[in-house]
Amino acid sequence: MATMTEIPEAVSTVERSHDYHAEAHVLSGHLQRPIEQKIERHASVALKDRRGGHLTRFAEEVSIEGLITFAKGHTRVSGARSLKNNGWITLSTSVVEGLNVFEIITADRIVSQVSTDHPYVNGHVPQVTFLGTQFQNLQVSGFPVTLTLNLGIFGDRPADDRSYLQDAKFLNVVKEQTEKIAKANGLPKELKEQYHEKLARIEQLIKTSDAGGPVRHEPITCSLVQSIGEIPIPGVQTFGNVMVIPDFGSVALGEIEVGERMDEGSQRPSVYIELTGINMKLGCVGHGTAKAATATANGNTHP
What we know:
Largest sheet: 9 strands, antiparallel
Number of strands: 19
Number of helices: 2
Order of helices and strands: EEEEEEEEEEEEHHEEEEEEE
């Protein structure tokens, strides 16, 4: 009598892999007045591979014609497997010490740090943390600046491996923060237009947050800085994480850009998180732009 051979259930043999991606630099920008000079990325470092590892860069006594200076700066990027969930951890850190911008903005130490944790299962979108980020003795013309930080602004990782740009809970937090600035009394016209544009983009994302599929979305911005204490200088105003300083320009603190990249060979975009300690748009005593302490982290899990 013939016997029936049992056929075991098919077991997936596909093993996941991960491309680490982390970048950091201490200072960058472009001055237009009183001199014309591009500020190259100082202490720039990048990790872009599947092996992971740890890379560092250092810079000391940097001076952009005496207008923007810092005493020390260093950057670190690393990527490794997680002992907690067998996933992938990426860490990006940028530190600037002894920062001086036109003798107006000074700080003893600013640290921007971003960490992403991609779990092994459903690990396309990471848990994001900013532990280590700090502002030490930040001052405007010698007056201390008091900041209220929210290092947990991203909250829990979105359910069902959804992108942060498709997660209504996160988007509503960003909307509330952006709306407070956009609708604040006294906000300069140029900034009002920028923040209303940002608000419109976020509101559109909220409307389409239930839509699925590997669609790449335009980046949005938010901040770890919830509020800035009063600065006793005539004309200085604060709006959320933004300082407006007469005869100097606008300064955004703890600014985060959340965007998506579509890497070659990927079936869906990967989320990137870029944190900038100080993002300055200068006007009057100097013209141009400058960023200090910038760190970026993300990664791409396959398949």
